[in-house]
């Protein structure tokens, strides 16, 4: 990350400054000069990569790659660490394409980034400063984080679900940049799988967002599996869930939702408590 921020990576634009006649064109799209902002933010390939990554970034919101990194730093440390691992593995995949002519696979990069994050977290685990937990079979770090408000002008919706004996409750909570409560909603029902319920929660949150102003929306949930399905178009959700995944993707494309991100459970505690409350007392209601 230091080399990226200092513009010290051997990008084609940087090499071209020292070697006369060196081809500076981006090897991924072949359309623009490969510099920091192009390769990591503006290239059509990296735009798709970010959108379908677990961080669900919409690149058009940012003017430069340092702005993107700043947004993680001010958003939460978890996003920054995952973002750094994604950038590192995207860079390695770019090098494999350049030197070995290996096709880029976003799913592979995402998995390698999560492994990288897990390795990093394991080092801290030995020092006893953090706990490690396995979430939906993918390993990620988990720190004692709290919910972090979105930037000014953005609303954040947290979603979660409770599920037992085929009964479920899903909840969505909307808050603004001051952390003020905007509204919440719960729905209860019957179904047969926890993934169906987590997707139900996510779709509820996406739809709930339209009840408020037209400002951009960030959605957060703690089901990494479901968020990866929705963000990564190359992922393969079970066929019985495909319609729900497509519905979620379509709402995201046609709404002001800027990102759908994974957060650990402690950052999602209000939505978690609300879902459990709705489950326990069979409450289906809207508070705005
Ligand atoms: Zn490009």
From TrEMBL:
GO MF terms, alphabetically ordered: nucleic acid binding; RNA-directed DNA polymerase activity; RNA-DNA hybrid ribonuclease activity
Domain of life: Eukaryota
Identification of the protein by name: Reverse transcriptase zinc-binding domain
Keyword Transmembrane: no
Keywords: Nucleotidyltransferase, RNA-directed DNA polymerase, Transferase
One Pfam match: zf-RVT
Record-linked CDD domains: RNase_H_like
InterPro entries: RNase_H-like_dom_plant (IPR044730), RNase_H-like_EbsB-rel (IPR052929), RNaseH-like_sf (IPR012337), RNaseH_domain (IPR002156), RNaseH_sf (IPR036397), RVT-Znf (IPR026960)
Annotated ranges, domain RNase H type-1: 158-278
Residue ranges annotated for the Reverse transcriptase zinc-binding domain, each copy included: 1-50
């Amino acid at each position: 990350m230091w080399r990226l921020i200092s513009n010290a990576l051997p990008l084609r634009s940087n090499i071209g400054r020292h070697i006369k006649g060196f081809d500076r064109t981006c090897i991924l799209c072949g359309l623009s000069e490969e510099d920091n902002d192009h390769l990591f933010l503006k290239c059509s390939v990296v735009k798709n990569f970010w959108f379908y990554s677990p961080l669900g970034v919409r690149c058009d919101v940012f003017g430069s790659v340092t702005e993107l990194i700043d947004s993680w730093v001010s958003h939460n440390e978890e996003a920054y660490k995952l973002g750094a691992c994604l950038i590192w593995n995207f860079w390695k995949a770019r090098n494999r394409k350049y030197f070995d002519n290996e096709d880029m696979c976003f799913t592979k990069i995402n998995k390698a980034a999560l492994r990288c994050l897990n390795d990093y977290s394991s080092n801290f685990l030995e020092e006893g400063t953090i706990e490690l937990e396995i979430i939906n079979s993918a390993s990620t770090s988990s720190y004692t984080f709290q919910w972090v408000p979105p930037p000014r002008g953005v609303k954040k919706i947290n979603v979660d679900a409770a599920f037992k004996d085929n009964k479920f409750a899903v909840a969505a909570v909307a808050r603004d940049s001051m952390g003020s409560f905007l509204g919440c909603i719960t729905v209860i029902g019957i179904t047969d799988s926890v993934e169906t319920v987590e997707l139900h929660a996510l779709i509820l949150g996406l739809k709930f967002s339209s009840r408020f102003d037209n400002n951009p929306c960030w959605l957060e949930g703690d089901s990494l599996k479901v968020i990866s399905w929705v963000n990564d178009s190359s992922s393969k959700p079970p066929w019985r869930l495909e319609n729900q995944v497509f519905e979620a993707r379509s709402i995201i494309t046609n709404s002001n939702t800027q990102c759908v991100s994974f957060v650990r459970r402690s950052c999602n505690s209000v939505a978690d408590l609300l879902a459990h409350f709705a489950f326990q007392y069979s409450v289906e209601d809207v508070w705005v």
